[in-house]
Write the structure tokens for this entry.
Amino acid sequence: MFVTKRALPRRTFLRGVGTTVALPLLESMVPAFTALAQSPAKPPMRFGAIYVPNGATMKHWMPETTGALDFKPILKPLEAYRDRMNLYGNLSRAGGKSVTDHAVSSAGWLSGAVAKQTEAEDIKVGISIDQVLAKHIGQETQLPSIELATEDFSGYVGGCVPGYSCAYMNTISWASETAPQPMETNPRTAFERMFGRASSSTERAARIREDRSILDSVVEEARGLQRRVGARDRARLGDYLDHVREIERRIQRTEAKNATRVELDAPLGVPETFEAHASMMFDLLAVGYQADVTRVFSFMMSREASQRTYPELNIPQTHHDVSHHGGQADNMERHAKVNTYYAQLFARFVERLSTMPEGDGTVLDHSLIFYGGGMSDGQAHAPYPLPLVSLGGAAGKVKGGRHIVAPEWSPIANLWLSVANLYGVSFDTFAESNGRVEL
Amino acid sequence: MDARSAQGVSASPSAPGEYRAAIDRYCVTCHNERTKASGLALDTVDLAHPESSGDVWEHVVRKLRTRSMPPPGMPRPDEATYDGLATSLEAALDRAAALRPNPGRPLIRRLNRSEYANAVRDLLAVDLDVSALLPPDDAAFGFDNISEMLTTSPALLERYLVAADRVSALAVGAPVAAGSDTYRVRQDRSQDQHIEGLPLGTVGGLVANHVFPLDAEYKFSLALYRTNLEAIRGLEHPHQIEITIDGARVFIATIGGETEKGEPGSTITDRSDAVDARLQVQVPVKAGAHAVGATFVRKIGESTQRLRPFLRSSAGTYDSTGRPHIETMTVAGPFNPTGPGDTPSRRLVFSCLPRAESRGRPANKGQENECATKIVSTLARRAFRRPVTNADVSRLMTFYRAGRQSGTFDTGVQLALRRILASPSFIFRVEDNAGAKPGTIQRVSDIELASRLSFFLWSSIPDEALLDRAARGQLRDPAVLEREVRRMIADPRADALVRNFSGQWLHLRNLKTITPNHDEFPDFDDTLREAFQREAELFFESVVREDRNVLDLLTADYTFVNERLAKHYGVPYVYGSHFRRVTLTDDARRGLLGKGAILMVTSRANRTAPVLRGKWILENILGTPPPPPLPNVPPLEATGTDAPRTLRERMEMHRASATCAGCHKVMDPLGFAMENFDAIGTWRTRDGGLPLDASGQLADGTKVDGVVALRRALVARSEVFVRTLTEKLMIYALGRGLQSYDMPVVREIARKAEQQDFRFSAIIMGVVSSPPFQMRLAGDDRDEP
């Protein structure tokens, strides 16, 4: 395994253009980090979810003894954080044994709901827990949530599960049961969404003013269009108008936050290797948390049925192929190797959060980050038991160091219901929930 | 369409009811009310009026036409019964459709990413890589221009707003802060071969079409690939590396050899950083698009010391031998700008200049307003794809005036342009339903038809000529329509049909995602990947542009190769990086089934996948996609023995299981017939040390022994292929999935095309003249009581 310890090479960032280039001050909405760290105010509570596709070699994930927190090979990289980690047992995918495939795995993970079998018309799953929380704890930050991924799915034509819309596999985040949230794969674009673009402050103020008047005028125009179309299109334009208003709110929040700025290095684009790409996304998320640009994220490390290959791990097959191990020991080991590689990259992110001081602790202490997938063993697309851990203390609300064993075949929605309640959302049920999971 | 023409070849097909006995005998054994195999009960559906269960009978027609039912091993009807039943069902369904046509209800469509890029290119001559501006679009039914999927979200709208800002600034040449763009070379792109678009006498590197926002200085810098130990490969020998703009050298440096002796005590990283730091230059460049290249000067007589060198120059992170590779080229700027320059974009945008200004004196407000009105009206007409209204103009002029007040005339125009690009009338394709009684069939207006045409054939907005014809109401004249369509297909913008339609129909877009295993395929490199793509595109394009018989897609004895691809196929005497047409002497390479691109996108990283190849043929050639694998299928049993097995032996296990056999008996033989091509399309006769067996029996009982026989079998049912292609084109043209009520239209188009030798233009004309393309059902289901 070749996970390097060093931080990302500097030259993957804009600064690498050369020291003689005088970069303008980035139009950044980031309050200076020190100011935040010293702020006496109550630190914000955060949520994150990181998706691992194609299931896992479960015997290398789950401890043999129920309830024990033993670190099997895949989760070994996280052992240093055992006091802030919880492992979850006995959770099942939405729909349990009734459905089986990649599409329902990714779509059902954060939504806890079963994806409706349809190619295009009336796609439907359920709102995902990250979006529930974005509406609840994300309203004070410039971005209620951010959604990231690493694979540009335009190279996956015909690669979706027959009978299921591709949308079920292209995202894990749903703003409502019918509204998939696009996931950004280009670190540069994600950076600009979070921190803005290079420009002077007067340019920036002018742009904000102009954006506002453009949006006002767009609303008026769209209302006119609504009168000329049928009911379904009217509803679609209605959604569009809601989105316009959401952007207006964001602009307001941006203005309110415009106090201090710091200079950041912008990423150069999409890195070639998976390791560099995923690490860069993790870096952006860490800085986004630290700077309080957003408190909620979802990150799909790779897509279900991913065709990515791992020559760096010396594995001849693609991720998807090796997950269909056919019961062969060497394939199962290879699959575990991919799983471990992912956990190593995730562990670096955890390390980074654990070294960001904030208030009376660290950013990690104030976060709750779930790491896992919507599929158990990859060979049979198994729905149970799902591989899942959480890191972080949710600002003292969640105690670590436990292997939490839910009743057998507990729907994952039970966990999300408890999470919603933990963050102060007073749901009584969520998707398929039939109980709660002790947190 | 009338009932008579719908009867097709057979003069007077008998009524479907006469085939009751045949259906009972061959189908109902499994498909009855009690067992309901695949949810289908054919004993109780109305056969006298097949249109009352259109979905069911269209499904049956498909199975009959491809002979994929009854399943192998069950009693089958004779050919006459197969054809008779299919023809009679089709005739009945077509007759019913003629009496009660349904063109479908189109929904609003958002411009997808490639449509947005093309629209901006055609409107403003701004040719940008939009993949950094907009996310890819969800696809359905095989294409990413499906209205149902083209929804919005706040994140997406934000991207459209940012794009409007950037594009308008570029088009007008507005002052912008310095930024940077980075172009990346794939690690497996060989650096020892010439790359098309770069000067002769160079090898490796990249060339990018970069849009320079202003007349200004720009900084170009290169970074070379490093190994896992941070070393730059190949520095033991000197190499010359150059940067060119439009082919003219602006920078050259020598790296490697004696020059690379680091300071004593310096680390590898220091030395590598020092090399990269030397590879940069800042020069003035005129605004507009220029081809920027970075490449190595070719050295004569240089070769590797390997006895049998790979065709790929080394690309491994852990391999410290071989040549240096360029990893990225970054263009930063503008610095010290001198003005907006004279660009094609500015010439397009500024269709007038304020009158006095053109004589060198400041214009008065009235003159400026007059000119601005002309500019925004012209741009809005093209962007909104319709005549502009007073309301449009006054809305835009508000923005012009706001911009003018805070800056110059250009600032005003830019703000108005930004408003145009942010407009729902630009981003969405909306057809006017006002005043139409829900449920009635309406012909779309000529203006709407113009957009339907241009987005189908160009993935872009109509040009002025097309819009003008539409505004005059001439497009409903079939002769004018045909002339316009022919003009549009001949136009370079029809490349979009090649890239977007064939790129998705044939799965060519997936090439970039696939990385064949380096140990199994040490010669494979990105140069070959790109050649596969280019070959398949040129091949499809030849059928489009030369208006050939579409069956040539399966059978043509020509293809397009460059040196790298010719070497791969074993075609002699082809030199250089450019593509040329060659006649194939090898029968196996004919048509799509012999193309490297198709063979690679249907393979796994380390081996062939007959199942994937079979599935690809079923979906894209025969139009009968297999159902998804059943839930809870037990894994193929572990072999239990260490005796070597061929892939085929392992695959046979699929068919041993009754649950899997139903589909795999249809799918696998198609794929096995192509086994002589390995996972990157190289011809072979052995696999895993054992002789290869490409024989099998297709669903219709035809015995095949390889790709040539398979192709012959597919061509024997040419009407199936033509219908499949027509269906795919219809989905792409309409932006929706097809329903059973669309199938009579598909058959009609295919039948008419047959009378014109299945020419590509005959199918295109069929699609654009068809009721679903020309009409719509007004309102929608939610409007009806």
About this structure: The longest strand of chain A covers residues 402-411. Chain A touches chain B through 104 residues (CB under 8 Å). The two ends of chain A are 33 Å apart (CA to CA).
